């Protein structure tokens, strides 16, 4: 069934990818994958456990030893072929994302553009990895630095961006000369496997890009974080799981990158351009049905424009079209699963019980299943669960503030520090606020901040390291220093 929805049915794989081989059976049986919009079974994936994960790591290490010897120019050409195959197969990849993750097809297409961007960018960056020559303390010495690929990288990725969260890691890793074992989220393996098929077609050697499937998450994660051949763990997901993976990686001292949860504040000052703010907030909040780590989780509005902005936002949110992401015109898809809907319901009920006002939405959607109404809540107090925890759903809490410094204090009053948003026309006010905000990224008069050119990442408990941009490849490189003596400066 799923196969027939694709122009290129070979992109639909019900198998793990280990050492260039499609593994359809393991001794551990299969797990079923369901479409969050319809509940239908999309695929049956072989369950991998310790043994299969170890096989993938050993294969990756073998492949790495040859791949690291290739020239940067060669890796760049191979990655560029991967990029062009991803772009050529955009429609099929987007369809797979919508089927397994639920986001509207137009957004899924946007995710493929975004995901492909990382492969193209790092294909270029591979040629720009440079060492250094440092002035030495003695005339007979030279100090030289080299940057070398770290080795086998384990990537553990979330379901909310099934393509981009993989290419944001695999692009720089492969460009640097590393090999990768990917454990995609159990809910979204099909996109990862299609990327694997395209990687093989592009000429990425067997063993360089492996994908492990099945729901035995702890068994797989346990091996990925403890096997001595894995030198790097790159994780995107919740802070809670990131903390566990960091602890597990400590025993073998692996280099770790952590892209974790957020609780993004969005501050709208009273001099903001209202149209710009409305558009920016809508995209920052409702993209991917609110299931984005940089989603505006708390919208703080200055008292002077609070009522006007709240009315405008409620009107627009009330018009958002909810439905199966494959249907034309749909703007809000299902949430990923029943647990996610319950969390949103709990946050909204708790806020209303505490005195917040529903301006629109506030219930499970009439479509049933995993659908929830796009919601705007006014008069939210900063301590309510909806403003303290990552709600990860289509709910916009509005918090009123009077003085600029109060907004900054509220914004920073969280253990998270991923993204923040500011809306104002006053450059000095923006600069002051942007410097004071404790987050790795600040969107100013925009709700769209992710692209392959910029360094993505958080501070505090939102993470370690950066992905994308010219900084992103350093996460997959080791710095080696050569102290070379006996170089007598005189020709005599
Ligand atoms: P999650 O529950 O932390 O899962 C993320 C990944 O970790 C999945 O592949 C999951 O596998 C795996 N995992 C869970 N427990 C594990 C364990 N004990 N050992 C090894 N792997 C384990 O997060 P999610 O619900 O998929 O994604 C939502 C979260 O990701 C949100 O907090 C969001 O903010 C964050 N996120 C952050 C960024 C960023 O760039 N900072 C981007 C996107 C999302 P299973 O699927 O098999 O459980």
From TrEMBL:
Coiled coil: none annotated. The active site is at 259. Keywords: Oxidoreductase. It is an enzyme of class 1 (oxidoreductase). One of its GO terms (molecular function) is oxidoreductase activity. It holds the Pfam family Aldedh. Gene3D superfamilies: Aldehyde Dehydrogenase, Chain A, domain 1, Aldehyde Dehydrogenase, Chain A, domain 2. It comes from the Bacteria. InterPro entries: Ald_DH/histidinol_DH (IPR016161), Ald_DH_C (IPR016163), Ald_DH_CS_CYS (IPR016160), Ald_DH_CS_GLU (IPR029510), Ald_DH_N (IPR016162), Aldehyde_DH_dom (IPR015590), Aldehyde_DH_Superfamily (IPR050740), Succ_semiAld_DH (IPR010102). Its EC number is 1.2.1.-. Residues 23-481 form the Aldehyde dehydrogenase domain. PANTHER family: SUCCINATE-SEMIALDEHYDE DEHYDROGENASE, MITOCHONDRIAL. Belongs to the aldehyde dehydrogenase family. This is NAD-dependent succinate-semialdehyde dehydrogenase.
């Amino acid at each position: 069934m799923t196969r027939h929805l694709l122009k290129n049915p070979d992109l639909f794989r019900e198998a793990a990818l280990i050492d260039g081989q499609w593994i359809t059976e393991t001794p551990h049986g299969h797990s079923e994958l369901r479409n969050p919009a319809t509940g239908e079974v999309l695929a049956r994936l072989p369950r991998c456990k310790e043994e299969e994960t170890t096989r993938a790591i050993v294969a990756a290490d073998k492949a790495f030893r040859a791949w690291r010897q290739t020239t940067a120019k060669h890796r760049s050409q191979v990655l560029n072929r991967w990029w062009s195959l991803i772009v050529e197969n955009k429609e099929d990849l987007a369809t797979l994302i919508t089927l397994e993750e639920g986001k509207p097809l137009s957004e899924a297409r946007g995710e493929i553009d975004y995901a492909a961007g990382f492969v193209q960018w790092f294909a270029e960056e591979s040629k720009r990895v440079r060492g250094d020559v440092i002035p030495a303390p003695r005339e007979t010495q030279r100090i030289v630095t080299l940057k070398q690929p770290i080795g086998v990288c384990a990537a553990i990725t979330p379901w909310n961006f099934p393509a981009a969260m993989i290419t944001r890691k695999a692009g720089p890793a492969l460009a640097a000369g590393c090999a990768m074992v990917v454990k995609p989220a159990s809910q979204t393996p099909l996109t990862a496997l299609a990327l694997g098929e395209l990687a093989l077609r592009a000429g990425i050697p067997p063993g360089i890009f492996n994908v492990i499937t099945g729901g035995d998450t702890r068994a797989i994660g346990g091996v990925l974080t403890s096997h001595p051949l894995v030198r790097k763990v790159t994780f995107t997901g919740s802070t809670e799981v990131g903390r566990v993976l960091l602890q597990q990686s400590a025993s073998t001292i692996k280099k770790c990158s952590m892209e974790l949860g957020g609780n993004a504040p969005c501050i709208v000052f009273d001099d903001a351009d209202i149209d710009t703010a409305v558009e920016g907030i809508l995209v920052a909040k409702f993209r991917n049905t609110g299931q984005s780590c940089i989603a505006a989780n708390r919208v703080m509005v200055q008292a002077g424009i609070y009522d006007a902005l709240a009315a405008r936002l409620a009107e627009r949110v009330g018009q958002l079209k909810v439905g199966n992401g494959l249907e034309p015109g749909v703007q809000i898809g299902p949430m990923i699963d029943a647990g996610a809907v319950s969390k949103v319901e709990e946050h909204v009920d708790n806020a209303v019980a505490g005195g917040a006002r529903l301006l629109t939405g506030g219930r499970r959607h009439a479509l049933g299943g995993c659908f929830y109404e796009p919601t705007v809540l006014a008069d939210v107090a900063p301590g309510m669960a909806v403003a303290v925890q990552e709600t990860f759903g289509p709910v916009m809490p509005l918090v009123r503030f009077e003085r600029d410094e109060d907004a900054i204090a509220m914004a920073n009053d969280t253990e998270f520090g991923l993204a923040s948003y500011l809306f104002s026309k006053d450059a000095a006010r923006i600069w002051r606020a942007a410097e004071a905000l404790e987050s790795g990224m600040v969107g100013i008069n925009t709700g769209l901040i992710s692209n392959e050119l910029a360094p993505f990442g958080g501070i505090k408990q939102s993470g370690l390291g950066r992905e994308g941009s010219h900084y992103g490849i350093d996460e997959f490189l080791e710095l080696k220093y050569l102290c070379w003596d006996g170089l007598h400066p005189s020709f005599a």
